[in-house]
Amino acid sequence: MTAFPEGFLWGGATSSAQFDGGFSEGGRGPSHMDHIRYYGRSHPEGQRTMFLTPEDYEYNKTHQDELYFPYRKGSDFYHHYKEDIALMGEMGFKVFRMSVSWSRLFPTGTEETPLPAGVQFYHDVFRECHKYGIEPLVTMIHYEIPAYLTETYNGWDSRKTIDCFVRYAKFLIDEYGSEVKYWITMNEINMIMHIPFLGGGMFTERSERDRESCIYQALHHMLTASAAAVKYYHDTKQNGMIGLMIARLQNYPETCDPKDALACQEQSRFNYFPLDTAVKGYYPRFILNYFANNGIHVEMEPEDLALIREGTIDFTAISYYQTDVISAQEEKKEPIGAFIRKLKNPYLKQTDWGWGIDPDGLRYTLNDMTDRYGVPVFIVENGIGVTETINEDKTVHDDYRIAYLNEHLKAVRDAIHDGADVLGYTMWGCIDLVSISYCAFAKRYGFIYVDADDLGNGSYKRYRKDSFYWYQHIIETNGESLE
Ligand code: BG6
């Protein structure tokens, strides 16, 4: 059996909106995520956190004193970064995936020069990482744009956001290029098709375009902006790699009826097409036909297409949590978990948040992506979110997490054995953080427990769970100790 390669990048992942806190420190401006309030898991409209309407947004903004906004506090990494990175060092991390908060550097996203406190903060974070031999893997935007851009331009709906992002990305590359070897321009770029507010910082209702045209136009702006950053990275001859990420939604046909297989293929094409475009440098024919056949109008300037052609990525990045079953009969789907309508897979167990546990699907996906792209793939998110409490003696016996990770890492090892080209693995939410689907602490992923509740009560102290020691040993043995 092939082992994990020498230099395999073991680590963990967070995002600024969900983890950092320090909401207004150093002059930081609000991001669009900072106006999402807590609704509560049991609230019938709990998922509103992902599907905010313009009315919700206005209400939240005008009632700030009465409401609680979990993203503003996150896990308070802003004040705990030294301790947190030391804990990562203790686990033996080789890489820490994190994201920069755009509005910590450029409060409205339109300034020419960044805030000194923000610039210094990231130098400090990268310095701490290097102290423990940890390479930062930096996502330029992880579901977070300055609120000003949402309010003034309707986020990625506008071409103006391209210029703002490119200025920001160039600054990051110039300022931190020698400290950061791995970059991802955008988190889960494909999710804008499902959650346009979160992914695009925009309200489709506010656009001059119809809903689908708005989504695909925004996606085109994002692909163009991402390619411009990639091209700049290459043109300035940086010593590292730059990639783009999708949420990988592996799916299976429900039966061997060719109609189910065709429906499954179509889903897969939608899932992959942003990455196809970023790796190959041009839009796949199927999506252009889809636009034409469905009256979807996407304006693509010749200079956009030139950038997309010239700014192709060095590696692909994925989050991988679950798989889907596809039937040609859409009506068979039923709601599962927070916002997804799915067909249940009878062969899989599910987490208590309704997400199917499918390690084999990860092997399938890694093999598939290696064949499809011919560039390495980085698994930058995977893990299990659970409702968890800490024992009186401050222990958390998370054997379910160890079991989940053990199976998924064996699947990674098997895929490498099959020939998949995998750069590394960063477990999602390595230190507990605020969940995206519920904007709350209720769903925990970490190796490290954070003493905080959904409403921001708690000491925010950190405690090692059993999985902390388990992962430490996995890294120490470069995966040899997987059972
Ligand atoms: C990914 C996102 O889709 O899923 C993360 O990039 C998110 O930001 C993660 O936290 C898990 O989702 P949730 O809803 O369990 O937090």
Layout of strands and helices, then pairs:
Blueprint (H helix, E strand, L loop, with lengths): L8 E5 L2 H4 L34 H9 L7 H4 L3 H15 L3 E5 L2 H4 L10 H16 L3 E7 L5 H7 L6 H17 L5 E5 L9 H5 L10 H25 L5 E7 L3 E3 L4 H23 L4 H9 L8 H9 L4 E5 L4 E3 L7 E3 L3 E3 L16 H15 L3 E5 L17 H20 L3 E7 L19 E3 L11 E3 L1 H11 L7
Parallel strand pairs: 1-2, 1-12, 2-3, 3-4, 4-5, 5-7, 6-8, 7-11, 11-12
Antiparallel strand pairs: 9-10, 13-14
Helix pairs in contact: 4-6, 8-10, 10-13, 14-15
What would the keywords be for this entry?
single chain, eight-stranded parallel beta barrel, 483 residues, globular, two-stranded parallel ribbon, binds 6-O-phosphono-beta-D-glucopyranose
Can you walk me through this structure?
With 483 residues, the chain is α/β, with parallel strands linked by helices. It has one domain: TIM Barrel, CATH 3.20.20.80. It has 16 helices and 14 strands. The chain has helices at 16-19, 54-62, 70-73, 77-91, 102-105, 116-131, 147-153, 160-176, 196-200, 211-235, 258-280, 285-293, 302-310, 359-373, 399-418, 466-476; strands at residues 9-13, 95-99, 135-141, 182-186, 241-247, 251-253, 315-319, 324-326, 334-336, 340-342, 377-381, 422-428, 448-450, 462-464. The strands form four sheets. It has an eight-stranded parallel beta barrel with strand order 1-2-3-4-5-7-11-12, surrounded by four helices. The protein has a two-stranded parallel sheet with strand order 6-8. Strands 9-10 form a two-stranded antiparallel ribbon. Helix 8 (160-176) packs parallel to helix 10, helix 10 (211-235) crosses helix 13 (302-310) and helix 14 (359-373) packs parallel to helix 15. The longest helix is centred in the middle third of the chain and has 25 residues, at 211-235. The radius of gyration is 21 Å and the shape is globular. The structure holds 6-O-phosphono-beta-D-glucopyranose.
